[in-house]
Amino acid sequence: MEAGRAIAVSELSRLRSGMMTARSSLSVPSALRNFLALLAGIALSAIAPGGGATAAPPPAAAPADPRFDAELTGYAYPFAVRFFEFSSQNQALKMAYMDVAAEKPNGHTVILLHGKNFAASYWEPTIRLLTARGYRVIAPDQVGFGKSSKPGAYQFSFQALAENTNALLDFAGVGPVSVVGHSMGGMLAARFALLHPSRVEKLVLVNPIGLEDWKTVVPYRSIDAWYAQELKATADTVREYQKVSYYDGQWKPEYERLIEASAGVTRHPDYPKAAWCSALTYDMIFTQPVVYEFPLLKVPTLLVIGQRDRTALGRAWAPKAAAAALGDYPVLGRKAAAAIPGARLVEIPGVGHLPQVEAFSAYSEALAGFLP
């Protein structure tokens, strides 16, 4: 297009020059000469950069999908969503949560704590399993995730999230609970049990991250660097990461539902808000290990460990030798079970970071055999 404009401008310039030369060699009435010059000038202005009749503007971008704003306002969860409004760190916040009644109540409640790359909605099969067995189930989105607030300034810590969660349980009128945490939720579940042991009946850690202290071998990465990385995320990169890291390079159509929200939000103008919270929580996970306090846990604990899992935060920029040794879940799971007094370990062969997705039957059997 630019080349074509340049040629046209050159030709019209030559035409104008020829008209000016013709003044001295031809007897052209002045009115005609002025009219021709005017036409040439109009043509030049129309195709020159910044001219009045430039190419048609590009079509307007498609409107943002309202399901995927910063708080997933229009995105449907599998059960009714409620909100706990509270004040924390001098600001008004809200936590979204599902509170699902048991079909035939057995008097016990289970709270499900989601992982870093998920919202509470991915617990749907577990919620249906537990409510059918008589449990009331609470499944919250932590601050910074899912339908909950995305504060621009918040001191994320596992202690703060645990206290928010404890306040939510009070608000919902829940007494003692069994706590099930997956991935990052496993770190939070352990912290919750350390802070509130009298409230916890049973603790279940499903492929929790943080079974090793990455910062001892992985160089620190700033929050700004995490944020820059998160801003580059697309639906394709979200899918590829989970395909490689969670499912051993295999992708099934049913996995699409699990990434629908995290992929969809990357296409919304609100995405920087979610990306910033993601960066802040990456820093929390990296700098706040709970593994050293496992011997202090005083509640009955079950570890459910998919043996193929190799999840490790910061592996990509760790020294090569250290990177190869990170995320060895068969070894890490056994060490964790040995460190937690009286812990029970269920190992699921051939399964990665999400046993509740890849091996629901074995996962269900482990839960049913342990919960009160």
Detailed description of the structure:
The protein is α/β, with parallel strands linked by helices and 372 residues long. It has two domains: 2-47; 67-368, Alpha/Beta hydrolase fold, catalytic domain (Rossmann fold, 3-Layer(aba) Sandwich). It has 13 helices and eight strands. It has helices at residues 2-25, 30-47, 124-132, 158-171, 184-195, 223-231, 235-246, 256-264, 271-287, 320-325, 329-339, 355-358, 360-368; strands at residues 81-88, 91-100, 109-113, 136-140, 177-182, 200-206, 301-306, 344-348. Helix 4 (158-171) packs across helix 5 (184-195), helix 6 (223-231) packs across helix 9 (271-287) and helix 7 (235-246) packs across helix 8. The longest helix is centred in the N-terminal third of the chain and has 24 residues, at 2-25. It is globular. Residues 1-53 have low confidence and may be disordered.
Layout of SSEs?
Blueprint lengths: L1 H24 L4 H18 L33 E8 L2 E10 L8 E5 L10 H9 L3 E5 L17 H14 L5 E6 L1 H12 L4 E7 L16 H9 L3 H12 L9 H9 L6 H17 L13 E6 L13 H6 L3 H11 L4 E5 L6 H4 L1 H9 L4
Parallel strand pairs: 3-4, 3-5, 5-6, 6-7, 7-8
Antiparallel strand pairs: 1-2, 2-4
Short description, anyone?
The chain is an alpha/beta fold.
Strand order of the largest sheet: 1-2-4-3-5-6-7-8
Helix count?
A: 13
Round the mean pLDDT to the nearest integer and report it: 88
Counting helices, strands and paired strands, the structural category is: alpha/beta
Fold-level CATH name of the largest domain: Rossmann fold
Which CATH class of the largest domain is shown?
Alpha Beta
Largest sheet: 8 strands, mixed
Secondary structure: number of strands: 8
- Count of all domains: 2
